[in-house]
Amino acid sequence: MAQAKLKPLTFAEYLNYDDSSDIRYDLLSNGKIIPVLNESEENDYLAMVLFMKLSVLISFRLVKPHTLTMEVEPVGDRYKNCRPDLVVLEPEHLQLESIIKQNALPLGVIPPQFIAEVVSPGNESSDNYRRDYEWKRQQYEQWGIPEYWILDPMRSQVSVLTLVNGIYNDQCYSGDQVIVSETFPTLQLTPNSLFDS
Q1: I want to staple 68 with a disulfide (CB 3.0 to 4.6 A). Which of 20, 64, 143, 167 is the partner?
Q2: pTM to 2 decimals?
């Protein structure tokens, strides 16, 4: 593969990488890039449902479903970037050149106020499960992101992780339980209403 011959890329170089193909890539901690599969229709749909619910509460320009690339601290030899299923930015982010030109957040800027990830099918030992429940949890905790939701359609549950003294506390919601969000206290949403939309 042509990309195997590339020199290790920095996050900035990765953002500017273009091999004239339609292939999307992720950046590994060693600076190498690997091809990424497209999101499933279900993941895309759930992110859009949440986008619509949140856009009623805040400016839709702050809500980024599947479009924002973030630089993260790698967990072991894992990814140095991620594209969350949904990110809610702070208003100050809209003034950043990296957002304006590349729809990207490098490490070192203020953290987004909210992230949601939709878990792809798999059991507790699969990479899909570990990526959202373990690796991204660590990365978002290190970033200082105040609230992180894990939407798990296979288990019909939503885990809400809230940052307290630098560590995530989590609360799991299922069925018709109203999801409590510190970031969006007026949001009226249950796992059933989200997954059955």
Answers
A1: 64
A2: 0.85
